[in-house]
Amino acid sequence: MSTATLDAATMEDAHARRRKALILVFFCTLIGAVSQILIKTGATVLAQQVSHPSLVSAAVGMFTNPYLFAGYALYGVSAVLMVLALRDGQLSMLYPVIALTYVWVAVLSHFIFHESLGGYRFGGISLIVIGVGVLGLKGDK
Amino acid sequence: MTTPVSSMVLVVTGSFIGSFGAVLLKAGAGRLERSMKSVITNWRLGIGVVAYGLSSVFFVLANTKGELTILYPLVSLGYLWTLLWAKLFFNEPLTKFKFMGIGLILVGVFCLKLSGG
């Protein structure tokens, strides 16, 4: 094999790895958003069970409340997958995808918990999504 | 339903504690060797994981009241702290894009505060 075809093969390989990383991170944002919905549900249940929730009851709840436990287990899975993806992907391309988590959480909260998304709230979430996307861009100064 | 300021403060406090988790994991990972023992005896990794756990406890307590559409995006303030520590402890450069990103996040958080009352 000549050097040229070898280079082409390595480049294609790198492209494939980046694509895979991108898809993996996208998948992570979906799992991450679902985990937040479970955590919110668990915290609401906790507030109904304990009259004045404290840091201690929150910590205990993470192990005894099935929603909180499942939420954090899922969060752990998405964190591990994310680390694997970050190994192979270009960070500048991954940040905008990571920011999608904020979009999914907002959409799911709207439809499941009937939370409002109007006015300043929509604007605030949009600015944060763009902000996180911009963070990863490469610039020297 | 409104989101109490106390819940917002809990999330921001949690994001602050969690940012130390990132610093400690980074510092700990830099000293790892290829053995299980070096992972277990690495106190930086240990405290880093504890910091992440503690920040999660703050997040759960915050969510016993208030709305997720406000509380979850506030977690993005963690980027502000992490970039500060990255500059301070690892001397990583603060590029113009990082400034822009943090600026947008801060304005976004301000909007969320306006919408939460």
Percent range of helical residues of chain B: over 70%
Encode the helix/strand succession of chain B as letters: HHHHHH
* Number of alpha- plus pi-helical segments of chain A: 6
Structural class of chain B: mainly alpha
List the helices and strands and how they pair.
The complex is a heterodimer of chains A (141) and B (117).
Chain A: H1 3-49, H2 55-64, H3 66-88, H4 91-98, H5 100-112, H6 120-135
Helix pairs in contact in A: 1-3, 1-4, 1-5, 2-3, 4-6, 5-6
Chain B: H1 5-29, H2 36-40, H3 43-62, H4 68-74, H5 77-90, H6 96-116
Helix pairs in contact in B: 1-3, 1-4, 1-5, 5-6
Characterise this structure.
Chain A contains 6 helices and no strands. Chain A has 141 residues and is mostly helical. Chain A has one domain. In chain A, helix 1 packs antiparallel against helix 3 (66-88) and helix 1 runs parallel beside helix 5. The longest helix of chain A has 47 residues, at 3-49. Chain A is elongated, with a radius of gyration of 20 Å. In chain A, 35% of the residues are buried. Chain B has one domain. Chain B is built from 6 helices and no strands. The radius of gyration of chain B is 16 Å and the shape is flat. The interface between A and B is large, with 49 and 39 residues.
Provide a short characterization of the protein structure.
The complex is a heterodimer of chains A (141) and B (117). Chain A has helices at 3-49, 55-64, 66-88, 91-98, 100-112, 120-135.
Properties at a glance:
heterodimer, A: mainly alpha, 6 helices, elongated, B: mainly alpha, 0% strand
